[in-house]
What we know:
heterodimer, A: 337 residues, alpha/beta, six-stranded parallel β-sheet, B: 440 residues, globular
Amino acid sequence: MRLLLISSPGQPRFAAQALAARLRAVGAEVVVAGGACSDLTLDPEILLTTDLARRVQGLGLLVEARRLPALLQTYRQACRLAGEPGAPVFSGPSEPLSGDRLTADLLHRLDVDLLCLHGPAEQDEWAELVRGTPHADKPVVQLGVWNRPVAMGRAGQPHTAVFLEQAGIPTGPSGKEPLLRLLARLADASPAWTLLIQPTPDTGSDNPTEPMADLAEQIRLHRPGRLPANLIPLEPGRQDAALRAASVCLTISSSWVFQALALGRRCLLMGDYGIRTETNLPLFFGSGLIHRLSEVASLDRLPQPLRPEQPWLRSLGWPIDDPAPPLLHALGQLSLP
Amino acid sequence: MTEPILLVADSDSQLLYAEALSRFWDRKAVPVTINVVPRDGTPQAIVRRLQAKARIWQLPVSRLLLDPDLREFFAVGVFLTGSKLAEFRAAYHLQANRRGWRPAPLFCGFNGVVLEKFDEAITWRLGYDLIGLNGPRDHARLQRLLRDTPFAQQRSVITGLRRQSADPVAATPPPRQRRFVFAEQVAMPALAEERRRMVRLLADLAERSPHWEILIRPRVAPDEATFHEHDVHISETMRQELGALHPRNLTLSYAPLADLLRTSQLFGTVSSTAFFDALDLGCRPLVMGDFGLANAYGTAVFAGSGLVRRFAELADLDGEISGPGPDPAWLEWMGHSDRFSTADLLSALRELRATPAWAPPPLSHPGFVVNAADLSSNQLRLGAEALIQQGDHSGAASLLEMALLQRPDHRNIARRLAALRSRPRLLRRLWLLLTPRFRG
């Protein structure tokens, strides 16, 4: 089966590449387009008007939800003008979502031919959203948490923790400072540890706040000695390496925590801000990983076990190990007369 | 034996909800007291209207909690915003504990169809003895959030969305006029440009339906304060947008919405809960779908109703009087069904009172955090002050650290935290004396 995947920056691109790898492993021919490291660097808008896009057996529009309707319209219009039916279009959120975030995402994807969801929790919410509407019959496939890395990593280094920083969370211009101070206190109280701060390219942050690395630099410049030496801000884009290096992962709600879980890292999600829609914590409510970091005296005294609850993992679709077979099967069903 | 119930509410919509919940209870057996928490902008007209139906108190929450009569109630319903709900619950239990009386069951609910932030709203409500829900839709969402968590046993009851049906109806109902009532909402849609478009859509519809009277019912009068913020009153938006081109059959009306719904043929809204009142009062509702199905407008909730219309595409209003009504399965799913009633809330409260030793569900479980568990910054600050009194400075610092994460610009929290962190001990004590204590 020949497939074309079009992605957009951030999680969608990472997820598209992970999916392409899985599809190729089972013998599908996959072309990935959109941005660096892709097979085609054509602008997606132009690519969608080409013969290639019309003659594949499946077109994956793995882009941010709000970009989808315009791309879909371009594609369908191009097919109409060419007098060809075009390929079935599949799409879905590239990271697990719940509640308002999932609804907002799915409302942009109502017109695709095959909706790709992660697991049963998302499928339940989808069913409730479209209950009684013509969309209730739309074909849906569960692909599991398909953006996680294929290979399980080795154990991380002991006494190394990584804090996954998000661009727009906490919200507000001054939100990062008390967070940085909290991390500094933890690092100070844990001299045997290295605490890395890794900015993650989360999608959907319209109002990015000042990176903690900049804040830390200012503090180190003006008040040397205020930040402990074992608190180390990293460059953006190093999350893969950082997650492999660390044995513990801390974050408010970065979706890169799924990578950390796949690597077998112990994870703690910060409940200090509450279960708020803005911080995306409702998604993690049942995980059993939410603790108040301000109650943690030092990294030596982290709460245990920092392993996710199994029912929560199941609701996300975690047990679906390989997204390729269900996707290819669902696409095959679509093309049946 | 009577079962007196106290309802505590602040904003206008919460007050109306509290009143609607108690509307069908037998007032002799279940006397209702409504405490209207004083707040700028509470419409006095609503308070006067409630006075005819219930005993009204107007105490601030801090005074209410000290009132000796508080212990006399069979149950207490609390209708406040999330953090205040959690604070009330904590303070009420503290008061009962201090004075040695058994707390009455506390209940809360959702004053309208929940359009957004449901999961967050639930975690503010956890720990209430009973959470009132509007329908099976809310119940399914609650269960999905709580199943497989330590809170799976949280009690809830469906009270339904039929809130108008038992109103006295005249023996011979007045004839319905060829009138279309549109309920304006303050924040749906919210952007000025969208609100101008909404007015234009209604004006165009008025022109296409010349023998119809189109009434816009504003949410508040121009001089009334409201709890939502918006810049321009709808009357001003109409003036700006339509000016001299204002169709004659399009007007504003401040008459009570229920009266208008009893005498009009059609009702329209973007996403107001008055949709269900219209059904109760025999007025056919339509949802304005021109802004698309979106969370931000609340329209996604109505997608399955069968009554979403693009107003720009309606030839006129005549075609909307007949034809299929709302989808019955959807109505039931939302809670608008004879199967659900506020009497079920009373039954659930009685059942709870009859349970020998019910206790508020615990909220502290490792790995699970809920908003209701002392998470508001005021609760954290009060907790920190209590710990300072006990000499537990590191515990107090941890609470203030959390409060500061939530309110990073709050100088007094930052100062107090800095004081707690200062060394040596003598300096810390001096700092603690100099920085302002939080007294709640």
